[in-house]
Amino acid sequence: MSHWIMAILSAIFGLVGLFMASRAHDFGIALFGIALAVWAALFCWWMIKLRYDEIEQHVDG
Prior knowledge:
The two termini are about 25 Å apart. Helices cover about 90% and strands about 0% of the residues. By secondary structure, it is mainly alpha-helical.
């Protein structure tokens, strides 16, 4: 269950980052927003990888 909560929070942070980047008036905030969105996407991919690794461990024994 905590994987779902972390994935949802990460997706929300990613959307907030994209919103910040789109509304930014200076380069620093735009860069931070893009970095936040990239981090959220990578974190979600990492969570998916962890889940497949857990499944693989259960199958292998």
